[in-house]
Write a structure and sequence with these properties.
By secondary structure, the protein is an alpha+beta fold. Helices cover 22% and strands 30% of the residues.
């Protein structure tokens, strides 16, 4: 496993760059580099490849490896993503909300291409979205990115949904259903019995029945917003 805090700090300092300058070299933001160095977030697959390429160029203006061969090999040889059997298509890491929102609502999980689901990766944070006012102070609130059209027109692809795990769900709520194998689905809860959890999907229309033993949690969706850039 790559120590991203040490690797990023060492590379940036050997290049003699500020966090903002280092971020510009990678095509990302100073806030993202700050989270890497604080250990709050690791780079995704594309970002790690960009770090490898940057390490190979050495200090600014040197044209050499800058003594980072070991770090470069460590980054290139490590494979913290994806977990076995999962897609390597990680979600975007910078998705601000509407103007005025603080961008600190953690985005969990990554999408598996071609599947109607998201892997929550045991709570791994893959980015941050704008926090709505109704989730201010809710420490365990989180966001997910809609990856398909199964709940259109209610939720569109690339829309950000906002989740409050503390409010009990009931029939006719829109929910995130997390299964025991860490997959998550965005559906409408129709009813719940001791034998089955019945969900509704809009596109194409169908009813989905899950064994309660295979459902880890159901969380209430309390809001959504488009991706703002």
């Amino acid at each position: 496993m790559v120590n991203w805090v040490e690797t990023v700090q060492r590379l940036r300092r050997e290049r003699g760059q500020t966090q903002a300058q280092f971020a510009a070299s990678l095509g990302t933001t100073q806030a993202t580099v700050s989270r890497w160095e604080a250990g709050r977030q690791g780079p995704d697959r594309e970002q790690s490849r960009a770090i490898v390429a940057l390490a190979a160029t050495g200090p600014v203006g040197s044209g050499g490896s800058g003594g980072l061969t070991g770090a470069t090999n460590a980054v290139a040889g490590a494979a913290p993503w994806p977990a076995p059997g999962m897609s390597d298509h990680l979600v975007a890491t910078e998705l601000p909300g509407p103007p005025g929102r603080i961008q600190d609502l953690p985005i969990l999980g990554h999408a598996e291409a071609g599947e109607d689901g998201t892997f929550l990766d045991n709570g791994m944070v893959t980015g941050y979205a704008g926090r709505p006012s109704n989730l201010v102070g809710v420490a365990n609130a989180y966001a997910l990115i809609v990856h398909n059209s199964s709940m259109r027109p209610r939720y569109e692809p690339r829309e950000i949904i906002e989740v409050d795990p503390n409010i009990p769900v009931q029939a006719n709520d829109y929910v995130v259903v997390q299964t025991t194998n860490d997959r998550a689905f965005i559906k409408l809860l129709r009813r719940r019995t001791q034998r089955a959890i019945i969900l509704e999907q809009y596109n194409p229309p169908k009813e989905i029945r899950l064994d309660p033993a295979n459902v880890a949690v159901m969380h209430l969706i309390v809001g959504a917003h488009r991706v703002y850039r």
